[in-house]
Structures are given as structure tokens and as C-alpha cells.
Amino acid sequence: MKNYNVGVIGATGMVGQRFVTLLAEHPWFKIKVLAASGRSAGKTYREAVGAKWAMKTPIPEKIGDIIVRDAIADMAQIASEVDFVFCAVDMPSEEIIALEEGYAKLECPVVSNNKEHRLYPDVPMLIPECNSEHLAVIETQRKRLGTKRGFIAVKPNCSIQSYVPALHPLKEYGISAVLACNYQAISGAGKTFETWPEMVDNLIPFIKGEEQKSEIEPMKIWGEVKDGVIVPAEKPLITTQCLRVPVSDGHTSAVFVKFERKPLKEEIIKAWSEYKGEPQRLGLPSAPKQFLNYFEDDNRPQAKLDRDLEGGMAVSIGRLREDSLFDYKFVCLSHNTLRGAAGGGVLVAELLAAKGYFD
Ligand code: NAP
Which residues make beta-bridge pairs with 243? Predict the structure, then answer.
């Protein structure tokens, strides 16, 4: 595989730091540019991040001395120096749309963790194991943006990245209704227990905008490409509740599901253990070997024990049993800043590279 020079926009933030950590030793992608706001521009990465560094490992030695650029003021220069950028920024929505389209129109593809472009019908929103065929809409998007090479691809919200993968191989049984209660870690809010001490011994029953995202985004993931755009699926009916819980990393989901044709419990477990997506078939560097992992032990999955499975890129599932209102219920877990954020973004970029979209 060819090597690619990459930029990280929002490199000083929580997701940006994850990108930096994951990319420091990546076999295909080499960090060439780190960019953030004007507040960080001109400083070394080490100075700009300072006490905000929240990763368990230190800032990679060769990255700490890179001078941070201004993502907006230096856009044209950055776009000319890299093959594509990752983007995870905290800015007003209209500024994020302008920033991402700005890079794409400068013929620099954007792999985004931001929510702003997720529901555009010609922007692929990818869980690479579930809907890699949606890459086909990039051609339509390029026509809209007037680009030859530039485009935007996004990954979905972290809250759906345990239960959508777990339900995906069961679609052949006709999933008719889903209820998912999501117990979400504090790193999903860009926080640690040091920066958010109120979360110790606490639970907050509201995460702004999250239930909407976790009900709407699966319909796009399960949508079909028609006439060059993604047409969202019309079923299943999905209802969710999203709660913030005192866990550092790892979103857990308690899922109830109803089918048109109820499978046997053994058929569900077999579908999970045998499921392979495009990343496994292509052998992408960040792809977990076993995407969906079923635990027989009633005490699993646990955030602390299982979130780091396969580098935090695998999904853990347990407690599958029949339900009196729905057909089945189960619990599933994924790492919200790895599979659910930067790791998922890197996997999307690997898929795009393997399919030739950066050439
Ligand atoms: P964060 O820690 O607050 O970091 C925000 C980043 O945006 C910083 O690098 C900041 O740079 C940069 N920024 C702010 N204003 C800017 C400007 N005017 N121009 C250029 N850069 C600017 O946020 P985060 O938690 O990493 O989240 C970033 C994005 O990812 C958000 O859209 C969020 O919804 C999404 N996301 C987060 C998670 C998660 O698990 N945390 C998961 C999925 C998606 P300075 O340091 O210079 O201010």
C-alpha cells in the first residue's frame, strides 16, 4: 500500500489527541500537519496541548515538536501539503461546514468526526463493516462541490457504534423494532474525572441532541444508494435513551429487539461470530480480526475489562436472552473514542485508501 501524508485538524482536542496517538505509528499514514485554532497556532504541539493531554501514553516524541498551524488561515497551504485531513473540531456548525467544504474544494479529502455533514445524502457516513457500499455517493458529492479529488466522508455518532454493529448481521430476520438505552462514558463529552469531578458517583439523564442522533443515524447507515445518493431505511422503528454515567471510556447499550421472523438464540450468536465486513476482507490495519465478540459469562461485557478489545476497535456483546415484550434483549459495548471516534475515523480512511479514493 502507498503511503499518505495526512493533516489533523483539531489536533489539540480530545479526539485530535487520539488521532495523533493512533497515527504516530500508522503503517500507511504519516502526520505531516497538525492544525487547531489561532490560539494554538505558532506553538509547538507539546506547548499547545499542555495540560490538556488526556491520553494514557505520552505525546509521541517526533510529534511534540511540530508547530501547530491555524486550520482556517493556513487552509490553502495545508491542503497543498497533505493527501487528506482528519477533522474533529469544536466550532459553531456553520463554521464547521465552511471549514470542511473549504478543504474539500481545495481538492483535499476530509475524513470527519464532526456531526455537521452526517445527514447529507451524498456524504457517506460509514461504519466500514456495515455500509462500505455507500462510498459510491462520493462521485455525486464531487459533482455538487465541483471537485475532481476533494470530498467529505464522515463517521457516525459514538452512541450507535455498539448496537448498530450488533444488529447489522441480524437484518435478514427483518428487524421491526429496537429500544436501546445507552450508558455513555464521560470522554464522549471530551472530559475526564479530573475535569468533570461532578460525574464521580453520579449519573446525568440527559445528553443534548444525542437521542435524536442515535435514532436517525442508523437509518442512514442501513439506507440504500439510489440515483447516486443515500436513501435512508424506513425501518426498524428505533427509540433510545442516552444517559451519562461515571465511566471514563466505553459506551454500553442495553438493547431490546423485535423481528419479523424470530431467529433462534443460537442463530443470533452464530451470525455474530461469523460476521465479517469489508475491513476484515481487505485486512485493513485498524480492522479488528473478530468484529463482534459474544461473551457467555453473565458479567460481561464490562467497560473496564472489554473496551480495549482488539485495540478498542471490536464490539463486545453479552446477556442475550428472550424478552417478554420484545423478542430478545442483550447488552453491547464499544470504545467511544477509539471505535466510536478517532479509531473509527482511521478505519474509514484506510477503507478510502484501499479503494483508491485518495489517489
Ligand atoms: P475538544 O476537545 O473541545 O477539541 C476541540 C478542537 O477544536 C481543538 O483542537 C480546538 O483547538 C479546535 N478548535 C476550536 N475552535 C477552532 C477554530 N476556530 N479553528 C480551528 N480549530 C478550532 O473537542 P472533541 O471532544 O475533540 O470533539 C471534537 C469534535 O469531534 C466535535 O465535533 C465532537 O462532537 C466530535 N466527537 C467527539 C467525540 C468524543 O468522544 N469526544 C466522539 C465523536 C465525535 P484549540 O485547542 O486551539 O482551541
Answer: 183
**Cell 453473565 found at:** 298
The residue to mutate among 89, 184, 208, having the most atoms of ligand 1 within 8 angstroms of its beta carbon, is: 89
Q: Determine the Cα–Cα distance for residues 20 and 12; give it in Å rounded to an integer.
A: 9
Are the C-beta atoms of 130 and 164 separated by less than 8 Å? yes
User: Is residue 118 domain-shared with residue 170, that is, in the same domain?
Assistant: no
> The CATH number of the domain where 120 resides is what?
3.40.50.720
Q: Which of 11-15, 125-129, 218-222, 269-273 has the lowest mean pLDDT?
A: 11-15
State the pTM of this model: 0.97
Q: How far apart are CA 290 and CA 26, in angstroms?
A: 20
Structure-derived torsion over alpha carbons of residues 146, 150, 155, 157, reported in degrees to the nearest 10: -50
Q: Which three cell numbers stand for residue 198?
A: 461532578
Q: Tell me if 251 sits within 8 A of 334, measured CB to CB.
A: yes
Which residues touch 90 (CB under 8 Å, ≥6 apart)?
10, 13, 190
CA of 121 to the centre of ligand 1 (A): 24
| Same domain, residue pair 222 and 293 | yes
Q: What letter represents residue 287's amino acid?
A: A
